[in-house]
Amino acid sequence: MQRVYKFLSILIVCSLVVSLPACKTQKKATEASLSVQQQIDQAKKRLAETMDNENLSIESKLNVIDEIRNLNLSDATLTAALNKNEQFLKEQKVIEEEVERRRLEREAEENARKEKFAKAKTEILSFFNRISQAPDIETANQLIEEALTLFDSKHSPVLVIVKKTGSLKEYDRPSSIMRYLEHIKDCKTYENNIENITFSDESGKISELELLK
Amino acid sequence: MALVLMGMMPLSKSFAQQSSTISDVKERAIDSLALEKIKDLGKYISIIGDKKTPFAEGQRVIERALELFAEGSQIGVSSLRSENVKYFTVRKYFEHLMALNYDKVTIEWFNIQYISNLELQPDGRYVGIVTIYQKFTGLTNEGLKYEDTTKKDITVYVEKKQTQISGRMIDFWDVLLGDIKVTETRK
Predict the structure, then answer these.
(1) CB B173 to CB A170 under 8 A?
(2) Nearest one of B15, B46, B45 to B118, comparing CA atoms
(3) How many Å apart are CA A15 and CA A13, to the nearest integer?
(4) In a domain, A83, yes or no
(5) A160-187 residue pLDDT tens
(6) Quick one: which of A22, A129, A208, B179 is 20 to 30 A from A4 by CA?
(7) How many CB pairs below 8 Å do chains A and B form together?
(8) In chain A, how many domains are there?
(9) Prediction pTM value
(10) Domain range spanning residue A143?
(11) Cα–Cα dist A199/A113, whole Å
């Protein structure tokens, strides 16, 4: 009986010695497979959260996609989502860049327009001033001829606003730039400020002048 | 072609019922516009009468001055030598002014005042009267001098019109001068 007990004890110990490492390996394998799946789930979650985050720039979102890709997680759904969202973001980037390009273009055009207006206004007012102070008729006439070179035609309209209510304007009897300059020469004064300058598309010169009393 | 804005008439009628005058805001703008036209006329007369003004310039300024007037207007001329006041058509007045037999002529307008409010007339125009003082000095090379100061009343007509400029319709106030009557002549 004692020999049997001894034999059984040795047998139990041996089986324990053999089975314990196998349990650990299996446990490790189970643990490892759970970790990859978790990583995939986490990556999918992170991708979804990133795409929903309106505060992130397109560039930041693309960086997140790259980071997820670099995890080298083998999952068809995840890979498809990464590719689809990357494509979408790249298209959005192109649109954004085009919108920005147009905005900058409009801004440049507006700045150029303002600069042209300011330059023309300065020139015109300078002529008005010099004509009004011309010492004699000949000098005044010479200045008038020079001033007219800024305009499309000596008949280019000059409108003087006598009353302005919001966008509604009422004018004095319309004149032409030639007559207006001669008026300044005759009366030796000008009192109106420049409200608006219209340029001709063809010649680039002034086609209409709007003054404000 | 100038058109009177008929749309203004109902509003103008209610004005007529109350005071027959333009609203305060409009009156200021149009009053100063009318005064400005009269000041322009004063300067034109000064240029036309000035013997130093070249003939071509004088003619050009006469044309400008004529455009300030309503058709059929007349201008009174007086003299210290006579109690009679002669009335000329506007063109004749300017031609007479250019032809004055002095070697130097100085004409100055001052105290230009709007003495009556613009009032709406049945024909849709606003009418008022502006008074001015004119100092006239004529000198000859021989040393003879004529000087007088006259007080004149100028009738002013203001009408809202429309015209087309660069393909769009715009509203404008057309100020035209009527008769210029002499009310006083003194040395």
Answers:
(1) yes
(2) B15
(3) 6
(4) no
(5) 999 888 888 889 999 999 999 999 999 9
(6) A22
(7) 57
(8) 1
(9) 0.75
(10) 102-212
(11) 10
